[in-house]
């Protein structure tokens, strides 16, 4: 699986399923921050990632056992925090959100139920868009509820800290609704660099 010590793991389609790995734990929740996407955001960091990208900025969150259980009380708090008019939306990070669909999919559905599209949803993932298109139904359903996806593994050899919302030049900031509609990757039109 691991190409060498300098590369992340590369799964085959549907090799890693959330139901087989997720322990429904979160590494952290940060309300009202400005760093995890555009505008003021509420950021949920889930626990567990199998990509294990060398140079990952959140190594502790790679462990599925790290952190604390995701609870209804926390979900209610996130929804309450999102209800403030100045909050633009929810951000899902990790760990790997697409290996924690039991938590992230349910939360995305609740955000859409409570707020429709008045709040946007961003997510980071180690999967590429092309890989996600071949993935399990839960991952595809979650993707359909997201507005902006930053895709791809972090690659030390392509590290570039001048990039907006990304750590390496292979990663893309994708407009999910436009990409799903067109059948090809559409880069977010507000991307500066």
From TrEMBL:
Pfam families: Fer4_12
CC cofactor: [4Fe-4S] cluster
InterPro entries registered for this protein in UniProt: Aldolase_TIM, NrdG, Organic_radical-activating, rSAM, rSAM_sf
Enzyme class: oxidoreductase
GO molecular function, one term: ribonucleoside-diphosphate reductase activity, thioredoxin disulfide as acceptor
Keyword list, A-Z: 4Fe-4S, Iron, Iron-sulfur, Metal-binding, Oxidoreductase, S-adenosyl-L-methionine
The keyword Zinc-finger is annotated on this UniProt entry: no
EC number in record: 1.97.1.-
Gene3D superfamilies: Aldolase class I
SUPFAM superfamilies in the cross-refs: Radical SAM enzymes
Family: Belongs to the organic radical-activating enzymes family.
Function: Activation of anaerobic ribonucleoside-triphosphate reductase under anaerobic conditions by generation of an organic free radical, using S-adenosylmethionine and reduced flavodoxin as cosubstrates to produce 5'-deoxy-adenosine.
Descriptive protein name: Anaerobic ribonucleoside-triphosphate reductase-activating protein
Taxonomic path: Bacteria, Bacillati, Bacillota, Bacilli, Lactobacillales
